[in-house]
Amino acid sequence: MDTGSMLGVAAVALGMVLTPGPNMIYLVSRSITQGRRAGLFSLSGVAVGFLIYLAAATLGLTAVFTLVPEVYVGVKLAGAGYLLWLAWKALKPGGMSVFTPQELPPDSPRRLFLMGLLTNLLNPKIAVMYVSLIPQFVDLSAGHVLLQSFTLGSVQIAVALTGNTAIVLSAATLSAFFARRPLWLRIQRYLMGTVLGALALRLATDTTHPAMAKATP
Fold this sequence. Notes:
Blueprint lengths: L2 H16 L3 H13 L1 H32 L1 H23 L17 H13 L2 H10 L11 H35 L2 H24 L12
Helix pairs in contact: 1-6, 1-7, 2-3, 2-7, 3-4, 3-5, 3-6, 3-7, 4-6, 4-8
């Protein structure tokens, strides 16, 4: 495979990890309120969610969106609307930062896994990444589209899990750091809201279509 494609997917995946969204909010909140072990159990569910998305997108989900473009547009706009809602929650007066501790009742490892899985499966950022972004790095002329897709997806999963593990392990430290520095917490909140809003607008106005579907026999 082209190294540039793998690096491109790695960059996209890193950007997604560093952009606050449902996964980060849940993992940080769970790690702060119930500890790193609970955060890692939740992350294991997130990891399985990535695998489900990868399998679905690689084995033909993008073909559905190509055959019925209205469904693709609907999913994309719904994701953009959700990101705008998250942006508003961060930017509105009295909004909360992702590193502001949120009380969550203790859960069992099984429930932590299932909640992490559900959070990831319902995360519009991840859906858009697999349906629209990663397929753009598939080189149709190189053949072995299925293998390329799984390889690129594996790169994304490796980067995402590495980044999210670092977030889980450092969540309490970062929360304490921001708690002692309210100005930094406010800056982080405004930055998070701005990034989410910009991502939502870009998603809503994007006119590209999944390239992977072009390779479907």
